[in-house]
Recover the amino acids of this structure.
């Protein structure tokens, strides 16, 4: 299936656009998607800051990026259009190669989509704005976009689009603000979806409404006429001035009501509940991914940045099971230190007594992700041994996602216990019943030679049917069942009774992200 | 921080080599990188010890590597440990042991003029810089291909190529023989391998006869991607043996195959122009008119104009001793000023000042009625490279904007309409 190109746009700066994009990318990669993020805000690049701990060259001093790629494209377009004599290279291959040149994969491990089929592993590839340094601004400002298009730039970009949609599930573009040259390319030509950020003031709201209108009319007039989806998001919401907030909110909702996804237009309340991101001063000072910025303790309730970026991602993808993966506190602190100090490795004091405990907690969290990534396969829940090992203190450190996982695991254990008892019980009851029946109906049953052969067959068939249906009924009424388990699975568990397989313990081979291959 | 890819590579290579050798890095340190001389350590010993005792020498080949004295000294110290070291008739060292060169940069970085790979110095020509490929694993073949094309820096952390390459390097290091340690090496007294008189060193030995290497593959300038710099100088230089139709002659750099007789001051300008180009992704060609200080303006203007029309970047590099500081200015200055004044070609004019005489560009332009394309290159490589880079990028931008000719059926740039426009 072809991937989706999503542009994150805001009319004015400072709306938290890059932050939302970075978090969205993280969530998608964590759920096993191949993600590409492109920093197209050439005049004020900054997306790389969110990925600092995961880049070899966090300041992009030695890494090519988008603008370097576009200069290669210009050369290629030029060779083809103007001075044909030097054009020997196939454009398709050249596009692929220059993309390759400036793409860097983040050094972070995510979980494969499906362990049983060995399907794809999620990752984030990153295209920065360009090699930073003294000539960066010159490189950006001397690029003549108009001329590039006259040389056949649109054709190259559509080649880029095809290439990217082929290679990635999600391509996320951090667009330039306002009505500049590049914001037109980012919002009108490239995407299938535009996520538009605005703050609750008149300029921002009217700006974004006008832009969305312009995109829509451009797309309906252009040749391919393909549909484009919009997702407006209100950001920097502060609850201090309640009355004014209400007025601005209503104004925004009225202005943008035509731009909500079609199925949401009849229930705007439900849409907007998920598409507001509150103002959080802590995030204004430092570019940190919400997965690391917010502690995921039980206190990390629904109004954290983490919860809000999750909600936004759920709305955009339509997948309401998306979650930011939870991490062990020690690991979170490690990453936070890297945010602060760049690549400098900070030697944190390691408490040796608790190292095993931390390892255990890490494995429990890995299991949670593996459960999520395997479409909630019940054998990825916690085993009874693991449930026993978790202390009350461990559970205090769990966020919503982990608590949910814990609850599901407990339900699973209860279900297994019931299945273990129910199967044999039904069997015993049926046995007693049939013995009684046989002894009372003996006379009528065996009155002719014919029935001596036929009746036992009827009897056995009847017995099996009765057994199956009672197991089926008992599995139907069995509740509560953990999320994601299928009725057929419950049924087979009940059928097998004590013979059913247990929930296995953590197994690094199955529950780990496929590590870069170790030397053999 | 610059050099972060290099540091990452070093760390990862050390880790994987340790793994193969069964060394616990917590207990025993292996590998030395020469950028990390610790404060308070004996720096000479820090550098000499590994040169005399370590198993392998990894040369990270960048174009700058061959110009650095310290790099040459390190190489010299290690190379002398090879047991049957010799030299062939092409000037390449033979039987070098345990030196593993790594191509750090993309293949364009090793170009000089129209020749591929000619910046790699003569003495290293016989050492293979690419891991062997038995061809039984597609991933490995692909990784080696990328390594050749884009260099090791690009491959750092790009999976699966990175792991594949690290593995190949580590296996190679593991399988090297152990060389006897050298005694009494002191880094300070070592010679620079790149300008050492190797012929003389091996004068009592038989020189191995080697076949003339085949002429290297040729590269040609591409629009918006290459710079042809014309040098107006009366310094001595050696011709690049290859010829091209875009210039009367090509100048060879001193550190490449041919240019041993090129004047060192001119040589450093050539190297700086090439480095500046490389930093911005340009291939630089060093050209000159014949004679290098032209007596006729029109010919050179025609050359420059032709290149500009092809949208190939051009630059004029003038030795300030030829103009404007020549003791006898006429008639050269008339010719040169005519070339500078010509608006038919696009590109900067660099004035190379070798002395402390200050050149005031503003007065110069005003007095001689010249357009504002003069740039003075001050002393010092870094300052020069920064200025040249800026000028190159600027020229490329102008060439793109000035270009004419549209692609058939080209769409126009989509522009967002703001508030207040009719939709």
């Amino acid at each position: 299936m072809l991937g989706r190109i999503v542009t994150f746009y805001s009319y004015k700066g400072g709306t938290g656009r890059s932050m939302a994009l970075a978090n969205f990318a993280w969530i998608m990669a964590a759920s096993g998607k191949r993600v590409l993020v492109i920093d197209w805000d050439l005049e004020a690049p900054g997306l790389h800051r969110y990925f600092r701990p995961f880049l070899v060259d966090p300041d992009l001093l030695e890494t090519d990026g988008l603008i370097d790629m576009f200069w290669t494209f210009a050369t290629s377009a030029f060779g083809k259009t103007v001075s044909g004599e030097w054009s020997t290279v196939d454009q398709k291959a050249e596009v692929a190669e220059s993309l390759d040149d400036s793409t860097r994969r983040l050094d972070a491990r995510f979980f494969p989509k499906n362990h049983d089929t060995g399907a794809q592993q999620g990752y984030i590839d990153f295209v920065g704005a360009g090699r930073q340094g003294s000539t960066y601004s010159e490189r950006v400002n001397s690029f003549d976009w108009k001329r590039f298009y006259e040389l056949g730039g649109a054709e190259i970009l559509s080649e880029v689009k095809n290439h990217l949609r082929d290679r990635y599930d999600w391509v996320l573009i951090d667009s330039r603000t306002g009505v500049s040259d590049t914001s037109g390319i980012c919002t009108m030509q490239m995407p299938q979806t535009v996520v538009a950020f605005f703050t609750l003031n008149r300029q921002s709201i009217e700006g974004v409404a006008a832009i969305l209108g312009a995109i829509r009319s451009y797309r309906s007039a252009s040749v391919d006429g393909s549909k484009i989806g919009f997702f407006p998001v209100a950001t920097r919401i502060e609850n201090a001035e309640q009355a004014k907030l209400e007025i601005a909110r209503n104004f925004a909702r009225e202005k943008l009501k035509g731009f909500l996804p079609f199925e949401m237009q009849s229930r705007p309340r439900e849409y907007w509940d998920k598409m507001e991101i509150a103002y959080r001063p802590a995030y204004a000072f430092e570019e940190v991914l919400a997965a690391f910025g917010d502690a995921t303790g039980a206190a990390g309730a629904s109004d954290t940045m983490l919860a809000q970026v999750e909600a936004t991602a759920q709305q955009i993808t339509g997948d309401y099971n998306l979650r930011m993966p939870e991490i062990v506190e020690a690991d979170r602190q490690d990453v936070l230190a890297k945010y602060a100090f760049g690549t400098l490795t900070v030697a944190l004091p390691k408490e040796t007594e608790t190292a095993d405990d931390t390892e255990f907690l890490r494995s429990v969290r890995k299991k949670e992700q593996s459960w999520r990534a395997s479409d909630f396969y019940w054998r990825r829940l916690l085993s009874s041994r693991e449930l026993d090992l978790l202390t009350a203190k461990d559970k205090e450190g769990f966020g919503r996602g982990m608590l949910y996982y814990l609850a599901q695991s407990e339900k699973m254990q209860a279900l297994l216990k019931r299945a273990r008892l129910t199967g044999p019980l039904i069997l015993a009851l049926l046995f007693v019943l049939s013995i009684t029946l046989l002894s009372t109906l003996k006379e009528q049953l065996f009155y002719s030679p014919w029935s001596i052969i036929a009746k036992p067959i009827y009897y056995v068939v009847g017995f099996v049917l009765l057994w199956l249906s009672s197991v089926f009924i008992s599995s139907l009424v069995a509740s509560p069942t953990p999320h994601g388990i299928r009725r057929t699975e419950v049924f087979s568990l009940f059928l097998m009774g004590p013979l059913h397989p247990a929930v296995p313990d953590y197994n690094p081979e199955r529950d780990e992200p496929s590590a870069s291959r170790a030397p053999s | 921080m610059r050099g972060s890819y290099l540091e990452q590579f070093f760390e990862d290579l050390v880790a994987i080599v340790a793994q193969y050798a069964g060394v616990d890095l917590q207990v025993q340190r292996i590998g030395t990188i020469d950028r990390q001389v610790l404060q308070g350590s004996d720096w000479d010993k820090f550098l000499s010890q590994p040169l005399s005792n370590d198993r392998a020498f990894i040369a990270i080949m960048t174009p700058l590597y061959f110009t650095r004295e310290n790099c040459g000294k390190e190489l010299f110290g290690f190379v002398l440990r090879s047991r049957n070291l010799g030299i062939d008739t092409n000037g390449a060292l033979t039987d070098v042991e345990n030196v593993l060169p790594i191509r750090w940069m993309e293949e364009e970085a090793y170009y000089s003029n129209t020749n591929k790979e000619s910046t790699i110095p003569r003495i290293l020509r016989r050492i293979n810089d690419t891991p062997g490929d038995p061809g039984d694993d597609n991933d490995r073949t692909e990784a080696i291909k990328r390594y050749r094309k884009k260099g090791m820096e690009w491959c750092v952390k790009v999976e699966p190529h990175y792991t594949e390459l690290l593995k190949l390097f580590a296996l190679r290091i593991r399988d090297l023989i152990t060389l006897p340690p050298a005694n009494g090496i002191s880094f300070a007294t070592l010679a620079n391998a790149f300008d050492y008189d190797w012929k003389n060193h091996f004068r009592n030995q038989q020189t191995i006869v080697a076949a003339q290497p085949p002429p290297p593959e040729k590269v040609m300038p591409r629009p918006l991607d290459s710079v042809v710099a014309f040098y107006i100088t009366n310094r001595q230089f050696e011709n690049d043996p290859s010829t091209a139709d875009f210039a009367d002659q090509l100048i060879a750099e001193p550190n490449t195959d041919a240019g041993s007789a090129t004047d060192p001051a001119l040589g450093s300008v050539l190297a700086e122009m090439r480095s500046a180009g490389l930093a911005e992704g340009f291939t630089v060609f060093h050209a000159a008119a014949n004679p290098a200080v032209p007596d006729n303006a029109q010919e050179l203007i025609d050359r420059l104009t032709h290149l500009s029309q092809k949208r190939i970047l051009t630059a004029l590099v003038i030795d300030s001793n030829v103009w404007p500081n020549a003791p006898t200015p006429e008639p050269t200055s008339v010719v040169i000023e005519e070339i500078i004044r010509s608006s038919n070609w696009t590109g900067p004019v660099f004035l190379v000042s070798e002395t402390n005489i200050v050149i005031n560009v503003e007065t110069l332009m005003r007095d001689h009625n010249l357009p504002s394309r003069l740039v003075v290159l001050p002393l010092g490589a870094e300052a020069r490279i920064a200025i040249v880079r800026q000028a190159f990028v600027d020229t490329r931008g102008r060439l793109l904007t000035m270009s004419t000719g549209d692609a058939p059926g080209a769409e126009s740039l989509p522009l967002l309409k703001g508030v207040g426009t009719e939709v």
